[in-house]
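seq:
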Amino acid sequence: MAMKLAFDGLKDSPYKTRDTSIDDVGGYESVELSVLLCNDDFIRELNKDWRDEDHATDVLSMSQHMPGLKLPMLMMGDVVISVETAARQAAERGHTLLDEIRVLMVHGLLHLLGFDHEISDEAEEEMEKEEELLLRSLGWKGKGLIQCAIDAASVESPQTESPDGEVSSDRKKEGSLRFYKPKFNYIFCDMDGTLLNSRSQISSTTAGALREAMSMGVKVVIATGKARPAAMTALKAVGLAGKGGILSESTPGVFLQGLLVYGTQGREIFRGNLDTSVCREAFMYSLDHKVPLIAFAQDRCFTLFEHPSIDSLHLVYHEPKAEVMPSLDNLLNTADIQKLLFFDSPESISTTLRPYWFEATKGRAGVVQAMPDMLEIVPSGTSKGSGVKMLLDQLGVTPKEVMAIGDGENDIEMLELASLGVALSNGAEKTKAVANVIGLSNDEDGVADAIYRYAF
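struct:
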C-alpha cells in the first residue's frame, strides 16, 4: 500500500529535486522491493562497505534499479532497517517499534524513488513533505524521519556560556547531522586536554561526532604538541587512524607545537629545530637538578636517565618510548631536536622552571606550557598557531572556513586565527579569554558537543 500511494504521488509530481529515473511505473508487470530487518552490527558493516562510514545508522536504501534496461519487473532495491536503532528511536519518540519501522520504511522507500534530502534545503523540504503525506495517507503514527530529526535537534540540551555571558543551547542531536549543512570546511583540533579526556582517551561519543562530521565532508585536522606517532596511537584506538580516518601518513597535520607540519599527501612542509647550545644547557640542567627531560626528534624521543614521569609520557600520553642515550654528545649527534620537555610538579614549574628558562632562552628559544606539570622549550618564532597558518596557506584554506577547538595556552593563536574558536571549560584562563565560545570540558565530550552545537 505504501508503494502504491508513493507511485500515485509520482504522477504529475510537482517536486523539482527528485531524480526521475523511476517514472512510468505503469509500464511494469510487477514491482519488487525488499525490506531487511537487522541489528546495528550488520548495518554498520553495510555502511562501512558501501558508504565508507564506520557507524550504525537507522535505515539504508540500496537501489537495484537500472535506468534504460527494459525488464518486465521494476527491481527497486532494498530498504535495510536496524531494529536496535529503531527500538531506541521509538523509545525516544514515544511510539511503538512497529511505528518506527514504518517511518523508516517510508523514508527508505522515498530514497529509492529518487528523493534525497541531503542535496539541498529544497530537496529536504520536498522529501519531508512526501514523508508526511504518505504517513497520513496510510494512517500510520509518527512524524517523518526528517521532521523527527529536526524536532530532536531543537530540544534543549546542556547550555554553554560564551565569554560575554551569552548562552547557547542549539545543540544538534547525535545522528542528525545529515539534515544540516556544515558551517565550516575544516575543524582544527588539539589533543591533550581537548580531544583526549583526563584518561588520555577519545570517548566513543567524541569518536562518533568526528565520524559524522567527516561523513558530511568536514575535514578534521590534528594540531597538537604531540609527535605524530602518539596522535596516531590515540586515534587508532577508536578506529580513526589510517585510510579513511582523521590521521594517516598521507593526511595533513600540525605536530610538536607547530615544529613539524605535514601538508597535502602528508608531505613535510616545515620542520623547526632547536639550537644545539640550548639543548646542551637544558640537559646539563636536567642532570644537575635531577629534573626529567625529554628531547623530541620527529618520530623519536631521547633522554639521559630513566624516570617514572618519562615512562608515563609513553604509557599514558602515547608518545614514542624515550631512548636512554649513553651520553649527552651521543644524544645531540643522533638527530636534530625539535623541542624539549621538562617534567616537574606544577608548583615547581610555575615558580622555578618557567621563570628560569624564560630568561635563559631569551633570543634563542621560547617556552610553552600545554599541561600544568610539563614545560616545553621550542625554537624562537615558532608556535602551533604559526604551524596552523602555514598549513592553511599550503592548503589554500581561509580562516573563515575553519573552526578550532583547544584548551591550553599553546592553542591561543589557533583559536584567534579561526573563524570560530572554541575553548573547553577545563582550559587555561588565558585561552578561554580569547575564545569565541567556551564549551564543555574534555571529560564531558566537549569536542563532540562543540561539533553538534556549532559546526553545522
